[in-house]
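Please decode residue identities from the backbone states below.
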């Protein structure tokens, strides 16, 4: 607001994908076209407080370098609400990306090879159920993260998926792993591709199996567009 910039443009320039991870004292780069602060117009409904002794901005000395600004703790805001396990909520709601996320190119796109989360026979595919893959297995089989990301949801609050894990890979792309017997990761954990996240089970399913889904902007897409050959 002070420099007349769109928050998404500022986030894109600084490679910020999750506004909740901004921290006190972090330096943000401004476009070279910005020369001086603008007089902010603050709504009467917004109350602004200043913290004494904290500098709100610093500018780099070389004129050729992009200007930088240090976060003011009084104006620091987050964009993603905490995920809670609400009974019978929809998987799209649980995995909904932050509305304030900048429009950047997803880190994972169709054609990018994800790992198979578990080895087994595909009982039902996207063409049959319109959501994802049902992969058969044995109780206790290791379930791994298909790609690197951050755990967005853990629990049994989504009806029909049993013990569920949702992992966020980009501002718009998530993977979901349902019907687990045991989950070994926690909310907000950062995971690597191939890291164990759960053990296969039959929670809310008639047999041991994994429901694996890939969702783009909350809508299911065919996981086979992303998965590589089986190991």
């Amino acid at each position: 607001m002070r420099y007349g910039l769109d928050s998404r443009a500022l986030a894109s320039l600084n490679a910020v994908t999750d506004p909740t991870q901004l921290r006190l004292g972090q330096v943000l780069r401004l476009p070279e076209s910005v020369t001086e602060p603008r007089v902010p117009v603050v709504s009467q409904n917004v109350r602004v407080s200043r913290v004494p002794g904290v500098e709100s901005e610093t500018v780099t000395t070389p004129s050729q370098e992009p200007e930088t600004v240090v976060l003011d703790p009084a104006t620091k805001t987050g964009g993603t609400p905490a995920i809670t396990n609400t009974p019978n909520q929809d998987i799209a709601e649980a995995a909904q990306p932050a509305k304030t996320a900048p429009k950047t190119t997803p880190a994972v796109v169709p054609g990018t090879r994800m790992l198979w989360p578990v080895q087994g026979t595909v009982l039902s595919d996207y063409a049959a159920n319109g959501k994802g893959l049902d992969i058969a297995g044995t109780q206790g089989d290791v379930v791994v993260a298909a790609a690197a990301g951050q755990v967005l949801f853990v629990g049994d609050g989504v009806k029909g998926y049993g013990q569920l894990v949702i992992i966020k890979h980009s501002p718009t792309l998530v993977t979901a792993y349902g019907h687990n017997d045991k989950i070994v990761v926690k909310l907000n954990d950062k995971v690597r591709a191939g890291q164990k996240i759960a053990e296969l089970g039959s929670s809310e399913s008639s047999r041991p199996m994994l429901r694996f889904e890939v969702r783009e902007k909350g809508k299911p897409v065919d996981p086979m567009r992303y998965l590589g050959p089986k190991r």
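Observation: DSSP finds three helices and twelve strands in the chain.
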